Amino acid sequence: MPVRGKFETHTPELNRRHFIRLSAFVALGLLSPSQGLGAIRAGLKSKRSLSFYNTHTGESLKAVYWAEGEYITGALEKINRILRDHRTGEIESIDTQLLDLLNAIKLRLDTYKPFHIISGYRSPKTNARLRKQSCGVARNSLHMLGKAVDIRVPGCRLPGLRKAAMDLKCGGVGYYPRSNFIHVDVGRVRYW
After folding, report:
1. What is the pLDDT of residue 4?
2. What pLDDT was estimated at residue 6?
3. N or C: at which end does the chain have fewer Cβ atoms within 10 angstroms?
4. Does the residue 4 lie in any domain?
5. 126 in any annotated domain
6. 122 burial class (0-12, 13-18, 19+ CB within 10 angstroms)?
7. CA gap 176, 192 in Å, rounded
8. In this structure, are residues 91 and 84 in contact, taking their beta carbons and an 8 Å threshold?
9. Which domain range does residue 142 map to?
10. What are 63-81's pLDDT values in tens digits?
11. What is the pTM of this model?
């Protein structure tokens, strides 16, 4: 049974070893894009952890969200909270596939720096308001389903973060250099 709510114990060598092996399979074309996230999950046998910093609320979180073969409910609840709609305070469940994608990006970048969150979950009300202010907000945004997040990583150049996400071929990747973030989601594979 996993220890719930416990902070991360780093085991980077094990995670990197699995990730390097998986990357080799992807590079050789032995895995199709549709197999990408499932293969990434299979390659992450030990604990999975994430660190976040919410740029709007100033909150930070570092948590192991998966261990011993299962997701940790208490950690998921904390992640849901830090990724909430900061405009309305609404909290919704964040898709665990998105968390696994973020973990894979973290491993690909070989960093333990927190993801800076620009936007996580968005309520339909917030999404509608943002659509009126900008043409870059999708009507049926995956943010409203907890399947998308806008991020940056301190010390990581935006093009490198974008490339790491695109190389995984596990969903959508949007590039917003003027606003200094990328969008990642677990929808269909597409880039903009």
Report:
1. 40
2. 36
3. N
4. no
5. yes
6. buried
7. 9
8. yes
9. 12-191
10. 999 999 999 999 999 999 9
11. 0.78
The residues near 85 (Cβ < 8 Å, ≥ 6 apart) are 91, 92, 120, 121, 122, 123, 126
Evaluate if residue 57 carries a pLDDT over 90. Answer: yes
Between CA 34 and CA 32 the distance in angstroms is 5
How far, in Å, are 38, 76, 105, 181 from residue 96 at the CA level?
Answer: 12, 8, 14, 21
CATH number of the structural domain spanning residue 63: 3.30.1380.10
Tell me, yes or no, whether 5 lies in a domain: no
Which single residue is written with the structure tokens 């996580």?
Answer: 120
Is residue 62 domain-resident?
Answer: yes
Backbone phi, then psi, for 169, in 5-degree steps? 50, 50
Q: What angle do the packed helices 36-43 and 12-27 form, to 10 degrees?
A: 150
pLDDT in tens, 160-190: 999 999 999 999 999 999 999 999 999 999 9
pLDDT digits (tens, 9 = 90+) for 123-162: 999 999 998 898 778 889 999 999 999 999 999 999 999 9
